């Protein structure tokens, strides 16, 4: 008899895809109410109206950099940050870091276009003589004061989600390096602000010059970063 009950219990557990607690809950509900359907209205009740949910999403769409605290104060009713995150997630909006680009002027765009047109017919052999170099800044603190933006997947490069800025706002180090087709320069680490004068004294003269001298016919290619274009005395 016990073996038969155990087999029935196992069969019911497999059918319900649950454990003994699930079977016991269904049995108690059946003996009490005569049904195994979940009671209507069980679970947490909805605290916000559809209109308030739309207001939360609309604020993030109008101003992608809006913070949760600002949304809390503008909704007009008490709302916790978890609710704001859930409503924005339901609208497929996630908090991401904005895409950062260098602020380019119309002159920069024109010069870049001229540079591309002048080299449109270059082949692989021509490009082997070009030395590309760049510098990257690494923040040393845990909080870099970055402002997030609310955006959907695939919207990273939208103009409303892009921040044009030359430098970061907190302490860090600047790493510089250059390379061409077959070789690379020494990695240089510069602490503090990399000004135009420091770029000449600490990078160009002691490192870039000797590196280019060892590559006959090399062409140094720089971008429009501030240390590369700043006037020096």
From TrEMBL:
Stretch forming the signal peptide: 1-21
Transposase Tc1-like domain segment(s): 53-118
Gene3D superfamilies, A to Z: Ribonuclease H-like superfamily/Ribonuclease H
GO biological process terms held by the UniProt record: DNA integration; DNA transposition
Keywords attached to this entry: Signal
Keyword Signal: yes
Gene Ontology terms for molecular function: DNA binding
InterPro entries the record matches: RNaseH_sf (IPR036397), Transposase_Tc1-like (IPR002492)
Name of this protein: Transposase Tc1-like domain-containing protein
Annotated source species: Araneus ventricosus (Orbweaver spider)
Lineage of producing organism: Eukaryota, Metazoa, Ecdysozoa, Arthropoda, Chelicerata
